[in-house]
Each structure stands twice: as structure tokens, then as C-alpha cells.
Design goal:
Blueprint: H1 6-20, H2 23-48, H3 52-66, H4 80-96, H5 98-109, H6 115-153, H7 165-182, H8 185-194, H9 200-205, H10 207-221, H11 226-255
């Protein structure tokens, strides 16, 4: 056997050995990775716990800037003043641990991949993490202030807007997750093209239906106002175009 055939043979033999592993052994390996993930999340959670109130102040800053001078946030439950920062602290720990979580999951599936698949998976993994963080940043710095300004500006003059801290937290976390997942559209589009589920030509032919679908989805996952729907649907459309452009470049590279 020549030296050029050795790496291919070793990769194939590794994949075959992985397929021959019993299911219980796969579960034992997966459990080890899950323990590491939970351990890192708990470590970050307890490290951030002393700053939980400061973290909630940062989250509530866009709302407090929009509220009138006579209004403030309220807590309608006795435990809300503790539970709301506690939940936010857990969410922040999870977000900070996301690169480590992705790396552990990648380490679990890496032995079953060939060298070419590993080469493509690494940039997709790092790209998905970066896009998820960009989605959350877009929601916090751009979308959230615009939505809050709209709702508070249209409130009647006889009504003093006072938001419950738990309700505001749930609203923000939902918004962050929606935009974080929305910004994964280029990665999803590339994966569908790579596995052959769709082609760039079929996506171009169905572009108008996809654009309508973006607005349709945004209508259901955002608050009931036109501003938030547009601020989600338009980025979804733009991100789809980015994924389509990268898919075309990938198809040209495969063709050559």
C-alpha cells in the first residue's frame, strides 16, 4: 500500500470501528461529553451569580431609557426580584458556554466523519456560533429599543407604563432566541445545498415564495406590530440571499 493511501485507509478504518461500537458505548461516550458541558455551565453560572443584579440592569437599560420619569419596573410576585436575575444569569452562562458546547458535540461526532467532511464542518460550526451571537446583538442593540419605543409611544396619556420584571425577561429571551436562530439561515442553506437536498437553481426559482415565508414566519414569532415583523423578516431575507450566494460559490468550486 502506498503512503498516499494510508490516511484514507486509517480514516475508513476509524469510521468502521466507530460503527462497530455498541450502542451503550456510544451513550457512555456521549454522557462524558454531557457531563463536561453541564460542569462548564454550572461553573460559569456560579461565577456570574454575584453579578446577577447588574446583568439584569444591563438587560433592562433599553426599557428604562424609554419609560417616563414617573414610571418604573415592578415585581408582581414576591420571588420575582430573585428569580428574574437568577434565570437571566443561567441564560448568560449558557450563551457564554456555547462555543464549548459546540466543541464537545463536534468532538463526539468527529470520529464518524471523513477528512473532507471535517474540513467543511469546522467553518460551519464556527460560523454558526458567530452568527448566533450576532443575532442576539442585533436584537439587543437595534430591535429591542425600536420595539420598546414604539409600544411606549403609542400608550395612552392616562396610562403609566410599568412592566413586570418577569414579563420583560421572558419577552427579551424569546426575542434573543428568535433572532439568534434566524441568523443561522445562511448555515442552514449551505447545509441543505451540501447534502443535496436543494440546489441553488431551485432556491432561485422559489425565491418569491421564500420571501413571503419570511414575512409569514416573522408575523407569528414576533410581537403583534409591524416594526418587529419587518425587523425580523428583512434580515431573514438578506441572510437567505447570503446563504444562496455562498451556495453558488460552493457549487462553482465543486464543478471546477
Amino acid at each position: 500500500m502506498s503512503q498516499s493511501q494510508l490516511p484514507i485507509a486509517s480514516v475508513k478504518s476509524g469510521a468502521e470501528n466507530l460503527e462497530q461500537m455498541p450502542v451503550m458505548q456510544h451513550l457512555v461516550v456521549l454522557r462524558r461529553y454531557l457531563f463536561k458541558i453541564v460542569g462548564v455551565i454550572l461553573f460559569l453560572f456560579f461565577c456570574l451569580l454575584p453579578f446577577r443584579n447588574y446583568t439584569y440592569q444591563l438587560l433592562s437599560d433599553p426599557l428604562r431609557q424609554q419609560l417616563p420619569a414617573t414610571s418604573t419596573m415592578i415585581a408582581t410576585d414576591v420571588t420575582a426580584t430573585f428569580m428574574a436575575p437568577f434565570k437571566l444569569n443561567l441564560f448568560v452562562a449558557l450563551m457564554l458556554a456555547m462555543p464549548f458546547i459546540i466543541y464537545q458535540l463536534w468532538s463526539f461526532v468527529r470520529p464518524a466523519l471523513y477528512e473532507k467532511e471535517r474540513f467543511l464542518a469546522v467553518p460551519l460550526l464556527f460560523g454558526s456560533i458567530l452568527l448566533f451571537y450576532l443575532g442576539i446583538a442585533f436584537a439587543y442593540f437595534i430591535t429591542l429599543p425600536s420595539i420598546l419605543h414604539f409600544f411606549i409611544s403609542v400608550s395612552p396619556e392616562t396610562v403609566a407604563p410599568m412592566t413586570d420584571i418577569n414579563s420583560y425577561l421572558s419577552f427579551c429571551l424569546k426575542l434573543f432566541l428568535v433572532f439568534g436562530l434566524t441568523f443561522e439561515i445562511p448555515i442552514i442553506t449551505l447545509i441543505l445545498i451540501l447534502i443535496g437536498a436543494v440546489s441553488t437553481q431551485s432556491l432561485v426559482e422559489k425565491r418569491r415564495f421564500i420571501v413571503v415565508g419570511c414575512f409569514f414566519i416573522a408575523m407569528f414569532v414576533t410581537p403583534p406590530d409591524a416594526i418587529s415583523m419587518i425587523m425580523l423578516a428583512v434580515p431573514m431575507w438578506m441572510l437567505f440571499e447570503v446563504g444562496l450566494l455562498l451556495g453558488k460559490l460552493l457549487e462553482k468550486r465543486k464543478a471546477t
